[in-house]
């Protein structure tokens, strides 16, 4: 990004297209607010932003959790008449959500005359992240009433809401909905179902979902290992980890967190130390606070 910025500065009369490219790059970088600084510069040069400009800037503010800068962008959106754009609104809601201002995100959502599934997904996932599952489920019901077809992202939010509430009955209804509408083809949806069943107290259903999966990534294996750990089945968690190794799927920090949690609650001290050392020495995974806590 440093060299791209230098090239941009050498252009006598930069246009908004070039800025949009640079802003998108900064939004994905470790220094997202540099996009905002550059934006102020092009405004002084008389360059007029378009509807491609703001999603990247809002993403930059979301990444930096820069609420005040995000609010300033919101004001500019209203000034330029872009606050109702179908691409801008989800980015605006996501900015408020990442900045932990769900109230403003909801107000943006409520002003949209005809919200699409992408817009619904943004606000539903926002409620899930802030542990407000009832609000998320109410929006899912509203989406159904309007006969808007949900996406796999919608289903992730709904299943996660069931996990937060611990409602096994409704969780099973959602699972049937998943199978009926073909969402069980998505690995992430199945992984979230495993997590939901584990947290709702049904290990048998979690195992059933896991065994029905044709493809299993690291997150799926980790979710099942954690499910065993939650239910005090340490030996099953360890055996599953060995199966995971045999399939040559690389573990991550969550995998080892599940193993350490299982060992901790079953008094398997030696095995726990072995896994803790293995994650550092064999897999180059840096332990976090939660790993040390186990």
UniProtKB/TrEMBL annotation:
Gene3D superfamilies: Tetratricopeptide repeat domain
Ranges for the PPR repeats: 116-150, 217-251
UniProt GO cellular component terms: chloroplast
Domain of life: Eukaryota
Coiled coil spans: none
Gene Ontology BP annotations: chloroplast RNA processing; plant organ development
Keywords carried by this UniProt record: Repeat
Protein name: Putative ovule protein
